[in-house]
Amino acid sequence: MKLGFVGLGKMGGNMVHRIHRDSDHEVVAFDFSAEAVGEAESHGAAGAGSLEELVRQLEPPRAVWIMVPSGDPTTETVNKLGDLLEAGDMVIDGGNSRWTDDKARAESLEPKGIHYVDVGTSGGVWGLEVGYCMMVGGPDEAVERLAPVLDVLAPPTDDVHGPGWGHFGPTGAGHYVKMVHNGIEYGIMQAYAEGFSLFDASEYELDNAQIAHLWMQGSVIRSWLCELAANAFEQEGNDLARLEPYVEDSGEGRWTVEDAIDKRIPAPVITTSLFERFSSRGQNAFAAKVNAALRNQFGGHAVKAADSE
C-alpha cells in the first residue's frame, strides 16, 4: 500500500519510520518542516513539498494519514485534502481530535465520496519500538483497506492480548475510546504523583526509583506508567529538582469530564486529576488568597505577606 502522511512530529515521524522499517508499504511524507521531511526520506519515505505534491504522488484509491495538532490545524488539513482528493479516497486522522469534530469532518467529505477514518493513537515516543495501540472508527470498507498498515503500526499480535488495534464503530468511535483512555491516564498519573509526594515528605530516606522498580515485580499497581516513573527518577534524580511543578493538559481530559457531565456519569477521580493540573499552574492562587483572608477575618489567624520570605 502507498500511503500519504502529513505531520512528522515526534509520533508521526516515528510512525513513518516504523512503516518503512517493518513492511513493504510505501509512504509519501509532508511536513512544513523541511528538516522533518528530510528525516522521513532518510528512513525510506518519498518527500513532498506540499499537500498538492503529496496527492500527485499517490495513485487512487488514495489514503492520507494526518498527524497534526487537533482543532483548527486538523480541520484545515482535512478541508484542503477534501479539495484535492477524489471519490473512493480516504483521510485518516491519527491525532487527538475530539470525536464530535470527526463526525463533522466525515459529513463534509461524504458528498465527495471521500472516506474518513479516525484512529486514536497511544504509544508516544516509545511506539517506534513497541508499537502503537490504535482505537479506530469509520466505515467498514475504509478500515478494511487500511488494516495492513494498522497491523504494521500495532504491537505484534499474541494469543493472550489479541491484536494491537480495534475497530469500534462508525466515525468518531475511535477518538471517543481514545478520549476516555486519556481521561483514565490522567487519574492513574495523579495517583502515582500523590503517592510519591508522600514519600518525598516522609521521615524516611526513600529511593523513589527503587520503589517504582519494585512495584513492577508482581505488584497489583504495576503498569507502564510505573515503569516510566522509575525511568524519570533515575534520569532526573530522586527529588526531580530540575523540573518545574507545571503540568499541561492536551484536551482529552477536559472532553472526558465534559462528556461525563453531559451523561451524568460520576467521574470524580478523572475530574480531580484534571483540576490538579490546573492547580499546578498557579490558577488557584487567588482562591488561596481568599482562604487566607477569610481565616484572618474570622479567627485573627496570621497571614503571610506576598513580599515576606
Q: What is the secondary structure topology, with strand pairs?
A:
Layout (H helix, E strand, L loop, with lengths): L1 E5 L3 H13 L3 E5 L3 H9 L3 E3 L2 H6 L6 E4 L5 H13 L5 E4 L5 H11 L5 E8 L4 H4 L2 E5 L2 H14 L11 E3 L5 H29 L6 H8 L8 H13 L15 H12 L4 H13 L4 H15 L10
Parallel strand pairs: 1-2, 1-4, 2-3, 4-5, 5-6, 7-8
Antiparallel strand pairs: 6-7
Helix pairs in contact: 4-5, 8-11, 8-12, 9-10
What is this entry, summarized?
Helices cover 52% and strands 12% of the residues.
Could you please describe the fold and organization of this structure?
- This protein has 309 residues and is α/β, with parallel strands linked by helices.
- Helices cover 52% and strands 12% of the residues.
- It has helices at 10-22, 34-42, 51-56, 72-84, 99-109, 127-130, 140-153, 173-201, 208-215, 224-236, 252-263, 268-280, 285-299, and strands spanning 2-6, 26-30, 46-48, 63-66, 90-93, 115-122, 133-137, 165-167.
- An 8-stranded mixed sheet has the order 3-2-1-4-5-6-7-8, with helices on both faces.
